[in-house]
TrEMBL record:
Motif Q motif in this chain: 25-53
Keyword check for ATP-binding: yes
The DEAD-box RNA helicase Q domain, residue ranges: 25-53
Name used for this protein in its record: RNA helicase
Phylogenetic lineage: Eukaryota, Viridiplantae, Streptophyta, Embryophyta, Tracheophyta
ATP-binding listed as a keyword: yes
Organism (species): Dendrobium thyrsiflorum
Residues annotated as domain Helicase ATP-binding: 56-230
Top EC class, one word: hydrolase
Family: Belongs to the DEAD box helicase family.
GO MF assignments: ATP binding; hydrolase activity; RNA binding; RNA helicase activity
EC number: 3.6.4.13
Keyword annotations from UniProtKB, A to Z: ATP-binding, Helicase, Hydrolase, Nucleotide-binding, RNA-binding
Length: 237
């Protein structure tokens, strides 16, 4: 088979960190639970994308990750599937709360992530809610009250709901900052920092960004602990 080094070279993957595990070149090598492999199979995917192949084994070691990869590279399942496995490893009581939180810059992106989470989490009975502004809070609060494992949210609406004390983040142990560069461009940094203060510091944190300017490097160094960095292709600073 293809060696890890050859696979990384071929797909322009560079990794920075100690003892970075070798990529999962095939779905069979992931060891994912059968219900998740079945969903992947039904989606018709033939192989993990490079960001998935390299970030899955790192995320499954409970390590923080900062991934720099362009749009369309399959980042969503890159963080969702390890999040689902993280959930499955927790006790039943610890799972609700929610445990997995994904922050996303826009309503549109949050909706797409929520759809992917609902689809791939369905057979694992994973409950998801999606919180975004510009829509009534009622249905979102009802989704929270039903009990949720995974929350996908834009920072503004999440803070509104936190201020209303209708949700607490005490049980969150897997935090994803998706499109971090865009969230910072949109001025969400104070909102993100406020949200993160509500989450126990023992969490695992994953940050995804298309670009790697100094503002993003700064928030990564503040919020992540010894992250492994995974870059796909060349990096725009
Ligand atoms: P990104 O967040 O990097 O922009 P997405 O996670 O939105 O990318 O994925 C882009 C598209 O690729 C989605 O339609 C998704 O379902 C699909 N996709 C994800 N993983 C794979 C895969 N391993 N093989 C083929 N398509 C995939
Ligand atoms: Mg994305």
């Amino acid at each position: 088979g293809l060696s890890a080094e050859a696979y990384r070279r071929r797909h322009e993957i560079t990794v920075i960190g100690a003892n970075v595990p070798i990529p999962y070149i095939t779905f069979e090598s992931t060891g994912f639970p059968s219900e998740i492999l079945r969903e992947i199979n039904q989606a018709g995917f033939s192989a993990p994308t490079p960001i998935q192949a390299q970030s899955w084994p790192i995320a499954l070691q409970n390590r923080d990750i900062v991934a720099v990869a362009k749009t369309g590279s399959g980042k969503t399942l890159g963080y969702l599937i390890p999040g689902f496995i993280h959930l499955k490893r927790l006790s039943k009581d610890a799972r609700m709360g929610p445990t997995v939180l994904v922050l996303s810059p826009t309503r549109e992106l949050a909706t797409q992530i929520h759809e992917e989470a609902t689809k791939f989490g369905k057979s694992s009975r994973i409950l998801c809610a999606c919180l975004y502004g510009g829509a009534p809070k009622g249905p979102q609060l009802r989704d929270i009250d039903r009990g949720v494992h995974v929350v996908v949210a834009t920072p503004g609406r999440l803070n509104d709901i936190l201020e209303m004390k209708r949700l607490n983040l005490d049980q969150v142990s897997y935090l994803v900052l998706d499109e971090a560069d865009r969230m910072l461009d949109m001025g969400f940094e104070p909102q993100i920092r406020k949200i993160v203060k509500e989450i126990p510091p023992t969490r695992q944190t994953l940050m995804y960004t298309a670009t790697w300017p100094k503002e993003v490097r700064k928030i990564a160094s503040d919020l992540l602990v010894k992250p492994v960095q995974v870059n796909i292709g060349s990096i725009d600073e």
